[in-house]
Amino acid sequence: MKVIVTFLFLLFFGTINGQESTANIQVSTFSIEAPQLKATKKIWIYLPKDYTLNSKKKYSVIYMHDGQNLFDTKTSYAGEWNIDETLDSISAQVIIIGIENGGEKRTDELTPFKNKKYSGGNADNYLKFIVETLKPFVDKTYKTKSNNKNTGLWGSSLGGLVSFYGAIKYPEVFGKVGCFSPSFWFNRKEIFELMKLTKTFKTKIYFLCGDNEDDDMVRDLNYMEYQINSKRCECQMLNKKIIVKGGKHNEKLWREGFKKAYLWLF
Hints:
Blueprint: E1 3-7, E2 14-16, E3 19-21, E4 26-34, E5 39-47, E6 60-64, H1 83-89, E7 94-99, H2 106-109, H3 123-141, E8 151-156, H4 158-169, E9 176-180, H5 188-197, E10 204-210, H6 217-229, E11 239-244, H7 251-265
Parallel strand pairs: 6-7, 6-8, 8-9, 9-10, 10-11
Antiparallel strand pairs: 1-4, 2-3, 4-5, 5-7
Helix pairs in contact: 5-6
């Protein structure tokens, strides 16, 4: 496995590769080969404020899609999520692994099935990369709690779709999912049919969307919630749905919803 570490710990004030660093903000990047995708992936990693090499303390891990949008406005498509500032503000005990999207291959990587108009359908290999290559490297390199109760998968739009698919595909790996504005429309027939065929669904999941996204977003989310509740008792309180009045399909909605979602999930 080829891993190129750009920098691991930002311990002093300064700016490296356009990323601001302080003693309390530990954001770094590395590159890792993704044989399942025949590509090399850039990975952003956030470490908690109290993370130290000589400590035996271990942390939960969240794998997040569209890593370019999580920490830095300069690398983001339309504004960042402010993940590091948000987690630092609550002294969160979690490691964030942000996976860069594949650019022109993003649609392929984040969609489970082909769409007649937009193609796609390579999410199985993308998830295999996370489960078989990236997660083992992270668990070996960092102080992680590696069981499914402490491992999350999180994304928005197509990232929400693939996160939900990951919950179905790898329940033994991902026990908690942040599903923001999921683009169920891309594979509506297939993803709902797959959910119907799923016998049990034990993943803890947080749904969020705005009521000003598109005509199908709220309807699809409500229907998926119904499907989930048919697999388990609502009394278990393992899923939560937030519909934001006036919320649009953008980074602002997801950024503002992240803190409450994190606190509920973890």
